[in-house]
Design brief:
This protein is of the alpha+beta class and 272 residues long. The chain contains seven helices and ten strands. Strands 1, 2, 3, 4, 5 and 6 form a six-stranded mixed beta sheet that branches. Strand 1 and strand 2 form a beta hairpin.
Length: 272
C-alpha cells in the first residue's frame, strides 16, 4: 500500500435527456437518462490515515459513506477542492464519492475489481457508478444500470444557475412529478429517446433528444434564442445548460445572459 496521496479530478455531469417512469418496488423511479461529463469539476486527494476525515468541504458525507463500504483496515484523509456548485443537478457529490472510492481502492493491498467497485458505488447513489465509467452513458433502472453510447463530443456547454434559484429536495421534485401524473406514457417516451439517440451523428442532432421530464425552466428558451441548439435543465435542477457549436458562440451568449445568474462555459469530458 502506497502512503503517497493520489489526486484526480471529479468532473460534473449534465443529463442530456431524462425520461422518468413510475416508482419501483424499492421506492426509486424507473428512468432512462443520458449522462455526459463536462470539464468543470472538483479535485480530490486521498491518502491512507488512521481514521477517515474530510477536509476542504467537511460537510460532505457521501464521500465518507462510500469509503466505509471498502471495509479497509485503515481510514482515509480526503481533501476536496470544491468547484462544482452545490445542489445544482450536476452530480458533484456523486462524482466526489466515485473519485474518492476509486483512489482509495487503488491504494489497497488488494484492490477490488472494477465491477465490484461499481456495485459499491451503486449502494451509495444511483448516479455514482456513472463516474467510474468512461464516456457518455445511458442510465436505466434507477440510473445505475449503464450502457455506453456513441455521441459527438465537439461542442461547448454553457451552464446557467439562475439568480435566486433554490433547489428543492430531489424527493420533492419526484413527488411533484408523481402528483401531476408524469409517468404516463413512459414506455413510449423511452422508446422515442432511444430512437433519437440512434440517429445522433452531429452535435446539433442532440437537439432532438426528449426534454427533462422532472423539471423545466422558461430560461431554456432564452438560451435557444441566443444560439443554443439544445437547452434544458440538468437532473432535478436548477442548473440549466445550453449546447453550442463553438466556445465563442457560448461566450457571446454568456455576455447577453449574464444578468440572469451565474454562468460557466465548459466542454465535454470523456473520463475523470
Amino acid at each position: 500500500m502506497t502512503s503517497a496521496p493520489l489526486i484526480a479530478p471529479a468532473p460534473a455531469k449534465i443529463n442530456l435527456a431524462l425520461v422518468v417512469g413510475p416508482p419501483r418496488p424499492d421506492g426509486k423511479h424507473e428512468l432512462v437518462t443520458v449522462f455526459q461529463r463536462v470539464d468543470l469539476g472538483d479535485r480530490i486527494r486521498v491518502e491512507p490515515a488512521r481514521e477517515t476525515r474530510i477536509s476542504g468541504f467537511p460537510e460532505d458525507t457521501i464521500v465518507r459513506d462510500a469509503l466505509l463500504l471498502l471495509d479497509a483496515r485503515q481510514g482515509w484523509h480526503v481533501h476536496i477542492d470544491k468547484q462544482i456548485p452545490l445542489g445544482a443537478g450536476l452530480g458533484g457529490g456523486s462524482s466526489d464519492a466515485a473519485t474518492a472510492l476509486r483512489l482509495a481502492n487503488e491504494q489497497l493491498p488488494q484492490p477490488l475489481a472494477s465491477e465490484r467497485l461499481i456495485d459499491l458505488a451503486a449502494a451509495v447513489g444511483a448516479d455514482v457508478p456513472f463516474f467510474l465509467r468512461d464516456g457518455p452513458q445511458v442510465g436505466t433502472g434507477d440510473g445505475s444500470t449503464l450502457e455506453p453510447v456513441d455521441l459527438p463530443q465537439d461542442f461547448a456547454v454553457l451552464l446557467l444557475l439562475p439568480a435566486g434559484a433554490r433547489k428543492g429536495s430531489t424527493a420533492e421534485v419526484y413527488a411533484d412529478f408523481d402528483r401531476r401524473g408524469g409517468a404516463d406514457g413512459f414506455d413510449e417516451r423511452a422508446a422515442t429517446l432511444r430512437s433519437a439517440l440512434a440517429a445522433v451523428r452531429r452535435p446539433r442532432d442532440l437537439g432532438t433528444l426528449t426534454a427533462n421530464d422532472l423539471t423545466c425552466s422558461p430560461l431554456a428558451a432564452e438560451l435557444r434564442a441566443h444560439g443554443a441548439f439544445r437547452a434544458d435543465v440538468s437532473g432535478a435542477g436548477p442548473m440549466l445548460y445550453g449546447l453550442f457549436h463553438r466556445v465563442a458562440d457560448a461566450r457571446r451568449a454568456a455576455r447577453a445572459l449574464g444578468h440572469l445568474g451565474r454562468i460557466w462555459i465548459t466542454v465535454p469530458a470523456w473520463y475523470g
